[in-house]
Specification:
6-stranded parallel β-sheet; single chain; Rossmann fold; Elongation Factor Tu (Ef-tu), domain 3; 10 helices
């Protein structure tokens, strides 16, 4: 069955209630998140209930600190696809507003989890917090579960071979440092920017390397520069390429965008949604003294990217 997305918690129909759920923000759906969801899935199988994931829109940080720089690791569409791939039946993308933010930990459990969603099991991470002032804890969640009649499982920390913690913060730190491979190791897949292809200056087309331009918008901004990439098209094809993530200092400053040259590809993508994975960081963004110097560097970038994402071509 396809994933169902529910954008409410009040007055839900019976078929949208009674799930075994994973509770958290799940931005990135990284390997630590996947362990929490796996625990909810185990409870769903045992209890013969649907498997649900609870997250919040907007992210609480956006409500309380709206002026902070963008930090998202995925769009809602990317998040839904990742959850569907893990076998999730229902994605509870709950509106996080000042009403919900005013609930203490007991109120949140009673009003949202019990009265609203009728949960049968709640899986959460070892560092879960919930309720006003982040007062709720794993121990409190267990206590409320016993009181209100749902079971609880708490996932242990997950770390890499070198002991690095799997967290959304660690993913952001790796991306900002220009280490997409490290981010991918935590995520379990490459970090990818998805968006609508916009019409740009079209200078690349005139110079022989047309680019598909996508605004970065609410994503965390990785280190600016040139990346080897793979791009998923709307029809599911994946095309290797090379991309500049930046502001175009040579040809005229623009808002931060991802400009991807898809190798051996000549189709109109304007207005279509594409998803581009950042596979490897090649070099920082540069300002060139002439277009000729820029073209020479782009050809070198092409060779370096092909060696990574399209060997043999």
């Amino acid at each position: 069955m396809p994933l169902k997305t529910v954008h409410a918690w009040k007055n839900l129909p019976p078929e949208a209630r009674g799930a075994s759920v994973a509770l958290g923000n799940f931005d990135g759906v990284h390997r630590g998140h996947q362990q929490v969801i796996a625990q909810a899935a185990k409870a769903a199988l045992t209890g013969k209930t649907p498997l649900g994931v609870i997250s919040f829109d907007p992210h609480p940080r956006r409500l309380f600190r709206p002026s902070e720089p963008a930090f998202k690791l995925m769009t809602q569409a990317q998040q839904a696809r990742a959850l569907a791939g893990l076998g999730v039946d229902t994605f509870y993308l709950l509106p996080f507003d000042f009403e919900m933010a005013s609930y203490g930990d007991r109120e949140f459990v009673e009003k949202v989890l019990v009265e609203g969603l009728g949960v049968t099991h709640v899986a959460a991470g070892f560092d879960i917090s919930f309720g006003r002032g982040r007062s709720g804890s794993p121990d409190l969640l267990r206590t409320y579960g016993e009181e209100y009649g749902f079971s609880v499982s708490i996932a242990e920390p997950v770390a890499g071979a070198g002991g690095e913690k799997f967290s959304s913060t660690a993913v952001r730190d790796a991306l900002r440092a220009g280490r997409p491979e490290q981010a991918a190791a935590i995520l379990g897949r490459p970090f990818a920017i998805e968006g609508v292809v916009r019409r740009g200056q079209q200078l690349g087309r005139q110079l022989g390397f047309p680019t598909a331009n996508v605004e970065v918008e609410d994503y965390v901004v990785p280190k600016l520069g040139v990346y080897a990439t793979r791009t998923r098209l709307p029809d599911g094809r994946e095309v290797p390429g090379v991309a500049n993530l930046g502001n175009n200092p040579t040809t005229g400053l623009v808002e931060t965008r991802l400009e991807t040259w898809l190798f051996d590809f000549d189709e109109d993508l304007y207005g279509q949604i594409i998803e581009t994975q950042l596979i490897a960081f090649l070099r920082p963004e540069l300002k060139f003294d002439s277009l000729e110097l820029m073209i020479d560097q782009i050809r070198r970038d092409e060779q370096a990217a092909r060696a990574i994402v399209a060997p043999g071509f």
